[in-house]
Amino acid sequence: MATPSSQQGDLFGHPRGLTFLFATEMWERFSYYGMKALLVLYMVKYLLHPERAQTVIGFAGLKSGLEFLFGPLDIQPLSSHIYGLYTGLVYLTPVLGGYLADRLLGQRRMVVIGASLMAVGHFMMAFESMFLLALFVLILGNGAFKPNISTQVGSLYAPGDARRDRAFSIFYVGINLGAFLAPLVCGTLGEELGWHYGFGAAGIGMTLGLAIYLYASRTLPPDMRSRVQSEGPAKPFGRDEWRAMGALVLLALPVTFFWATYEQQGNTIALWADGYTDRTINLLIWSGQIPVTWFQAFNPFMIFAFTPFVLMLWRWQAAAGREPSTVAKMAFGCFGVALANLIMVAAAASAGGGKASWLWLTAYFVVLTLGELYLSPVSLSLVTKVAPARAVSMMMGVWLATSFTGNFLAGYLGSFWSSMAKGSFFTMIAVIAALAGLVILAFVRPLKPMLRES
């Protein structure tokens, strides 16, 4: 079967479809991170105050349920729990979205459904009473979109094509380009003009992503479901396929704790930037206060700034025969998050009872970003290489579901923010990340044959 690359010709050494998938994912991440940059601040500073919270459809029931589990909740811990529940469910529904793509609808149709739902959900955020309904629509949309856009990147390349890992690193730059622009645009609009302007901008971004994807249809790979069906009746999974899927599931367990610690950046780190950071900056061309939401742009900016250097390092290590395995890289990613939080321990100590310099947060994001580069993009590539072709979207959904439990746990951990000394809080986060790295490191040798790593 001809690949899209052979049909359409390459662009910059990769199939043309990669460019359009890059752009689609960039706008989807713009919409997601634009809304996410505002979410906790919006709830803490505005929506969940008693006179407004009672107008939100379903709020009383959700609050009662969370307080049944966790006891009485003030505005900040309640906001952290809602944030964690939302960002967690966003990464649970991809299991269903991947299953529907593999079995019924195909990857392309699911991406269109998901993008449409997310555009509607972002525009619903403009209505305060529909806040929880909007989050529900966004959760469903992301579940349909997320696993199926990622698997299409892998489907652009034949088995064994050495460009696949580099393609996922390029694709990951698209993710973070959108995530970089989102706080600057949506965050600034939300903080300066009004929350709903920021949410509306997120909706426009998602609509642009959907339009690009529909335009690009002829350059995209056929659905994996169609390819598998053309090969004849489905056969039961073989022993090696079960072993590969089992290895991915085992590896997913400690990765959950990576996301629980990493995702503090949109939760408690945002609160640190708001209440405990001296955001004054004096430059030759500008001086003033750095907006709180702009700190959410630090990580994605550093992603596309650092990616070329990380790839150069890996190529140099590979030439010398010393490149770490994928699983070892993932362990190093956890250690990076641990080190980043130790930097925040030092920031809390330097602040005393006052505020710490914004440079501490810059150092935190530098180390956090390097940790992310060692875990997130390589793990996406690993899933597309290891998972059986007829279950690749579902396994991508299972892998993304590590962020469900991770984000839910992140919300739970964030609820301790108000009651703990800040140095103690960051120490707790660092210890959890380090333990996750040690567990993954222990998996390197046992999982190597199952993951077919060289």
Overview of this structure, please?
This protein has 454 residues and is mainly α. The protein has one domain: Growth Hormone, Chain: A, CATH 1.20.1250.20. 74% of the residues lie in helices and 3% in strands. It has 20 helices and 6 strands. The strands form 3 sheets. A two-stranded antiparallel ribbon has the order 1-2. A two-stranded parallel ribbon has the order 3-6. The longest helix has 32 residues, at 16-47. It is globular and about 60 Å long. Mean pLDDT is 84; it is low at 1-8.
List the helices and strands and how they pair.
Blueprint: H1 4-8, E1 10-11, E2 14-15, H2 16-47, H3 50-53, H4 59-70, H5 75-89, H6 94-105, H7 107-124, H8 131-155, H9 163-192, H10 195-215, H11 224-230, H12 239-262, H13 268-275, E3 277-278, E4 280-282, E5 287-289, H14 298-319, H15 326-351, E6 356-357, H16 358-386, H17 392-400, H18 402-414, H19 422-442, H20 444-447
Parallel strand pairs: 3-6
Antiparallel strand pairs: 1-2, 4-5
The end-to-end distance, rounded to whole angstroms, is 27 Å
Secondary-structure element order, N to C: HEEHHHHHHHHHHHHEEEHHEHHHHH
Radius of gyration: 22 Å
Low-confidence stretches: 1-8
Number of self-contained structural domains: 1
